[in-house]
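F.,

This is the one I mentioned.
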């Protein structure tokens, strides 16, 4: 036990907590299924992690301000549909690379637009982020269902397959895109004024305002950047799935929130790191892959994730009371 305390103190709670959780998941599923500790499973996780990881990084920003985004899944869906519609309008399977690039730019713009709207409402009305994002979730979900009539859009050019499933020097292309986004997010939170102000707002928004921080501007930028990154994740997802639908990723927001909290991000705001969020996303992706491998059905997976989220929130509350 003393050794565990020393490891935790050396790594810090943001790294030690999700690190131990990841180790527990690996050990459990390693015993439950010998196939879990195989190169095939690790390769599968490497290809699947970027989408969940990008959504976790996107969620990290509003949570650091003390907010939340329940619309993240349907924002990703409408962004993915945007790419699909652009490809379909330009020939479908015969669409060129330029059409895909335009579609991705528009997808990022759609994501950013939803974020800007939420940021504006939160910043100027001081409405609770949960209520604002819930309203946006209902709107975006309804919009997607209206435009697709509940169907999906498929039939994309062959060059998308390497983007979603290819590798460069043995490293999955989606993972390389994810790493690039991680570096940008790291610079944003640790080297830029916006990152510092984000932490300030999460710690005490009134104190930040009295310190001269334009809290409205920061909140709008935070939610806009969050939405833009959701758009990037949608571009990777459509390349991996070769289809776009408004019903994809149901309850993915639970995985994302759980990943952030497991990674040491406080739902009260002001506390959280990129490294912790990455480990949290890896824990949740490994958990999901392990459950699929041992044959756990979707309803039971949702139950497990719900329990994990409850425990993570409870531990976050206990920790904040202890340090407070």
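My design for it:
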């Amino acid at each position: 036990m003393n050794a565990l305390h020393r490891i935790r103190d050396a790594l810090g709670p943001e790294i030690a907590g999700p690190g131990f959780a990841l180790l527990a998941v690996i050990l459990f599923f390693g015993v439950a299924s010998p196939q879990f500790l195989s190169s095939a499973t690790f390769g599968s996780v490497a290809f699947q992690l970027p989408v969940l990881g990008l959504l976790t990084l996107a969620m990290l920003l509003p949570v650091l301000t003390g907010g939340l985004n329940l619309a993240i899944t349907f924002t990703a869906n409408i962004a993915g549909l945007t790419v699909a519609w652009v490809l379909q309008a330009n020939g479908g399977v015969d669409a060129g690379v330029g059409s895909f690039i335009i579609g991705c730019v528009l997808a990022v713009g759609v994501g950013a637009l939803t974020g800007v709207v939420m940021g504006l409402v939160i910043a100027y009305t001081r409405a609770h982020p949960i209520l604002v994002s819930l309203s946006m979730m209902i709107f975006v979900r309804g919009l997607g269902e209206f435009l697709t009539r509940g169907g999906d859009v498929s039939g994309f050019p062959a060059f998308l397959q390497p983007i979603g499933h290819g590798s460069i020097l043995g490293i999955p292309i989606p993972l390389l895109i994810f790493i690039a986004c991680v570096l940008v997010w790291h610079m944003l939170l640790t080297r830029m004024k916006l990152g510092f102000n984000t932490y300030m707002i999460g710690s005490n928004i009134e104190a930040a305002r009295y310190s001269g921080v334009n809290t409205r501007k920061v909140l709008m930028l935070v939610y806009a950047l969050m939405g833009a990154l959701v758009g990037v994740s949608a571009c990777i997802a459509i390349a991996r799935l070769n289809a776009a639908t408004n019903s994809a990723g149901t309850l993915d927001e639970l995985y994302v929130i759980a990943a952030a909290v497991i990674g040491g991000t406080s739902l009260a705001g002001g506390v959280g790191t990129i490294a912790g969020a990455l480990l949290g996303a890896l824990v949740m992706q490994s958990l999901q892959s392990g459950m699929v491998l041992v044959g756990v059905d979707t309803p039971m997976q949702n139950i497990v994730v719900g329990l994990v989220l409850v425990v993570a929130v409870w531990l976050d509350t206990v920790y904040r009371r202890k340090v407070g």
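The first strand starts at residue 152 and ends at 154.

Talk soon.
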